[in-house]
Write a structure and sequence with these properties.
This protein is mainly alpha-helical. It has helices at 5-16, 20-27, 31-39, 49-56, 60-64, 68-88, 91-104, 109-122, 128-141, 145-162, 166-175, 183-190, 193-221, 226-243, 253-269, 273-292, 321-328, 341-353; strands at residues 296-297, 307-308. Helix content is 69%, strand content 1%.
């Protein structure tokens, strides 16, 4: 019996608008039995399947999800296209892809989830209502924790950033799991050999990224002076430099680029022109290294079991990092430096690698 039967029963009941009690009465069984089926804690007796199918006006095959393998193959084709478009930063094309998928599979939670993600990547403000509708339907009907957790996160961000609704954002934030032990943390304990080392190294890299994320959140929400911002940004910079001691940051060249750009802004505000230009040079260097890197294992000793997959990287914009930084330097705040030789050299280097 297909393991998605509990989801099928829950979906069919909600679509019909009946209660567990009504189905139980029709079948002549207890409501507790129906409740267990929907929780995935048991299955109906095989003799009840035709009656359940009749009640919901579907075939037994549809009830059991016999055609699920065929559907999943088609959805996997959509996922393959998603991977290509995500890698290229083609957000509008991703939305069109998942809208097409939703027409074909209107009740598939995987499709709903990826449509939510694409809509959020385009604009949580513009697409807020549709994201919320999809997310709340996933929470109401879906029992897959992966998509439920993703929906909770998306709803939290959409209410906060898209709707400016702190109350509902907090509601969904508190719905997130309280478990402090992730799958990665557990695997680090129980695996052996190279697999254990790889997981531990991935965890270390992830924690460094979390330090940067939380520093950025502090800066965005706090009332820090430029001197204090520099102190804060130097913390993740020190961590990244310690971990990637040979300078091969791989994917994280993009992170280092952004740190240098923020440091440049702080130095500009403080009137430290030499340091401002130095950080811009470093930002350009890391943008170019990010754009020209090749897939392969990191070479730093503490991370040498981690793989940097260039083809698997994703973004929400079509430009590469060199083009993004070049666009940044066209803003008015940089006008007084346009005739500086250092600025001209920085732009020339970026123009060589910029792609739009």
């Amino acid at each position: 019996m297909n393991i998605t039967l509990n989801q099928q029963l829950k979906r069919l009941r909600r679509n019909k608008g009946n209660t567990q009690e009504e189905l139980a009465t029709f079948l002549g069984i207890t409501v507790q039995a129906v409740s267990k089926w929907e929780r995935g804690e048991g299955y109906p007796d095989i003799l009840l399947l035709p009656q359940i199918a009749e009640y919901y006006n579907v075939t037994v095959d549809e009830l059991l999800g016999v055609n699920d393998a065929v559907k999943q193959k088609k959805i996997d084709e959509y996922l393959a296209q998603e991977g290509v478009l995500f890698n290229q930063g083609k957000t509008s094309e991703r939305i069109a892809l998942w809208r097409e998928a939703k027409k074909e599979f209107p009740n598939n939670y995987q499709v709903m989830y990826f449509l939510m993600c694409a809509l959020g990547a385009e604009s949580r403000t513009k697409n807020a209502d549709e994201i919320i509708e999809l997310g709340e339907r996933i929470l109401d009907e879906c029992t897959d924790n992966q998509y439920r957790d993703g929906a909770i996160q998306s709803l939290c961000f959409t209410y906060y950033y898209g709707k400016k609704d702190l109350k509902n954002a907090q509601k969904y934030a508190f719905m997130a799991s309280d478990c402090n032990v992730t799958k990665q943390a557990l695997l680090a304990h129980i695996l052996e050999g190279d697999k254990k080392i790889r997981i531990c190294q991935e965890n270390i890299g992830w924690m460094a990224d979390e330090i940067l994320l939380n520093v950025n959140l502090m800066i965005n929400k706090g009332n820090f002076t430029d001197e204090e911002k520099i102190k804060l940004l130097n913390v993740p910079m020190t961590v990244f430099n310690a971990l990637y001691e040979d300078g091969n940051f791989g994917f994280y060249h993009a992170r280092i680029k952004n740190i240098h750009l923020e440091l440049a802004h702080c130095c500009l505000n403080l009137g430290k022109e030499d340091e401002f230009l130095s950080h811009l040079e470093s930002a350009a260097e890391h943008a170019i290294k990010y754009d020209t890197r090749q897939s392969g294992y990191f070479t730093a000793f503490i991370l040498n079991h981690c793989y940097d997959n260039v083809e698997g990287s994703s973004k929400n914009y079509t430009e590469n990092d060199s083009a993004l930084l070049l666009n940044e330097l066209k803003k008015s705040r940089y006008d007084r430096f346009k005739d500086y030789m250092q600025m001209k050299v920085i732009k020339e280097k970026l123009e060589k690698y910029a792609q739009y």
